[in-house]
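Predict structure. Chain length: 309.
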Amino acid sequence: MIRVSKLWRNWKSKVKSMYFIPYRRHRSWLLAHCPARVEEDQWPILVDYWSSEDVKKQSKINSKNRKKQKMPHRTGRKDHVNLREELRIKTGKEPSKLDVFIHSRQGKQMDELTSQTIATMNEEIQKLPETSRDDNFVKDILYENILGPEKPGRLRTYGVGATPKDVYRMSDNMNDGQKKAFEDAVNEKVEIIRGELREEMNSKLADFKEELIAQFEARMRASTCDLASLQRREMNAAKQSQISDSLEVGDRMNREVGTNDAEMYKEVGTNDAEINKCEMNKKVSSIADILENHHTKKKRSRTTCKRLA
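Prediction complete.
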């Protein structure tokens, strides 16, 4: 009956969009042109119904709500029931709500929100333990965590009319023993998943700890090398400073020695000049004495000659 109701609603929508909306301002024309698949006595009633203010107001509200719907499926006329059956035949197992959502929305022309949602779902699946990635129970929980919980009496991705009671086989008619068995099975499944997650997290923590230790040791080695290099640079700088100081002292001593040598050479030159002057004076005096003796002897010789004459 739900399927028939949906088909009837779709048929009325098609008749309204084709035969009423384009000519709604011409009532006389509408009444005179009844669609072939509509009874003539029912057509005026339908026109009056669509023309009423209450129906117009409700139609506007429904149009706004329709525009608010996000991430529409891209399977065309294929409903979720048939898509589920195709996936079940293809994979050999019952698909989860998450699997049906991804297969019914993915495509080349996905909007940004749908693309981001599917990417988030795939990322969350990869975070699960490998043993839980194909578990429909886990995927259904993941699906509701991302898209929100189910509304009462409805169940997404299972087609029109499907309810949680129909799918999960749990109803108010169950006795206490059946309900307890169902809850125990669910709790057992949850504990298994928690254990798997705990083991995986412990493994990842151990790997992360080893990685941190390796990084710390590498940094310590690098710091030690940097410290040794710094010490070598400081020692080289100290040696270079000592060499520079030594060279500066040597240059200063050379300058001082050069100054002393110049003064000594100057003093020696002055003494030599004085000695040479004294010697010259002595030589001149000796020559003068010789000349004087020569004149004296010559004078004496003349005197002697005069006497003899």
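Summary: The mean pLDDT is 78.
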